């Protein structure tokens, strides 16, 4: 007790404004359940594992810690009662009736024990203890009572927990137009008014028409008559017949809002057509139930997870799994791949001790510290050990749970701060953006992905040319469906499927025939030239057509390829292309090499006077934006279609929605400057300036955050010290790119299962030590049949 009294002046009591890290070490993945437990400082409330607490003491002099040791007590399932098997009825994770990652496992209870530990001798004093000084008692009790920092972060993100059934009230519901046309809907015996469908029927709440719904991705469903009726009538709301319950609930779809919605006045709207909800019984599957059924019947999940194989678990350095923190498989997949690349290993794993030693006061909020912590967790092998003898055969390996990392990299981001499923390619770009921002004075490992793209424009009248270059980190390739090499097999399968459906049956998932496409057909599509309308030629001082070709002027150390599997159908419904792409193990992209200005070519002259800014049909612009497309994309579409109308512009958008510059600020074709120039989003710039910042400060913030307004505001407040620093001149800003041969080998790929990026699951396959390994969240095993043809993102290494 005398030793403790020497340090009373340094002990503090945390308040609700302090972050208390009592779940996990800020430098490692040690926690109260670890063999050595967790030490929480009574001065700054950081949680530290045994490997880091001594260094923290030596660096800060903080000597008094609350030592937390947790014992896991499993409650046998036999004591819980057998009960029926849990039925999934909600397309949701971590909510009632949704997917429960813990279902089927033995229930777990915990028993915590506490001591006061004093360094450097690790002298222990039992807790609770009425003889302890009051300040110590108050500090410890507050640490135990306050929610942990990770819990607070989780609660903050909980509002974004993915739940397929949380729907917003429709803006059309309150003042919905309902015609007095004399129609009354019978309680049963419904049939589509335009075909013989008697299932998947939708009652339009405005005119009482009963029509079949959309066709599902597996060919089942309706014939799209309900959506066609909306295009003709513009009546926005329809309810799915058979899903109406006595409590006034049902599936309501808003065609105008393109989403499932809530209709607070549904009972009233149904009464107009003679339907009394108190007499209704649910007879059809809801859209959520159908989505679940379709996902379960698809054989994609089994193929990508290699469910048909007896996978052998593998342990040791580099074979550490990551727990799924509620739709965090996109994060797990990306980070598993990045920490297999030497640039990332050298920057964060090899330098982890230095990074930890130089850590700021709050390591949990430091990007480099959390990257180093994750690198050590994945690569050291400390958290990847075989289960003890006698463990259940199907017991999940523990892996690591990067809560602090996820909280940090998602902070302030409207999507990645939530628990919603995210697109893995977008998250990778987000991580690489953070790397660039946080490694201004260090070697940025993300440079290994960067390459320079060359765009060549040739004026159709003068034949003069213009070259523009830009920086990219991902080679995104369209999939030419008409290049399938098994069209006859696919057609035969589609015929068999239609025949089965005509008899009320469905083909088994194993009989699925996917279109097969050679990867080089995707490359060929990329290299084809494109006709550009309304290109402003400085040679003729007017608009002409121009021919655009795209090539690569540099080849990166690591080539990241995205296959654009997510697209829109003609009716703007998002779909995922279910195709098999023959991805090669070795790849030579030398044919993509650009060569710049050639002998005999003449450059277009520089513009002396900027051409007039084009005018847009404001009504058409508003209609396109109402469809959900970005303003700059709408401008580009209207311009490229000569302002002839919404239909032509929408068709152009459908064709170009995956272009890399789709959401960039619109610039008149032919007036682009060099790629190093930055064009801020006009609306975002105006918003930031209206808040009292100068145009130069607003431009700088938008430039550092890829024109993202929310992130730009966060950037401004976190970089106040260098807001007035002059930007380097254009010459010093010229990017340098690594370059080499165009020969590569496949080292990893990430696959997506499901019908949309906002749902489903990601699985990673990595080539390690000459063998393919599957990383499925916490499960790590030797791969027997790596599904290379079904991937979404592919990582190639230069050879």
Binned strand content: 15-25%
Radius of gyration: 30 Å
Helix fraction? 25-40%
CATH architecture of the domain at 2-146: 2-Layer Sandwich
Distance between the termini: 64 Å
* Number of beta-strand segments: 26
Number of H- or I-type helical stretches? 23
Give the full name of the CATH homologous superfamily of the domain at 2-146: Zinc/RING finger domain, C3HC4 (zinc finger)
Structural class based on helices, strands and sheet pairing? alpha+beta
Low-confidence stretches: 77-96, 101-105, 158-165, 294-298, 728-733
CATH-derived topology of the domain at 2-146? Herpes Virus-1
CATH class of the domain at 2-146: Alpha Beta
Mean pLDDT: 84
Gross geometry: globular
Main sheet: strands, sense, barrel = 8 strands, mixed
Domain UBA: 615-656, 679-719
EC number: 3.4.19.12
Keywords: Hydrolase, Metal-binding, Protease, Repeat, Thiol protease, Ubl conjugation pathway, Zinc, Zinc-finger
InterPro entries: Papain-like_cys_pep_sf, Peptidase_C19_UCH, Ub_carboxyl-term_hydrolase, UBA, UBA-like_sf, Ubiquitinyl_hydrolase, UBP13_Znf-UBP_var, USP
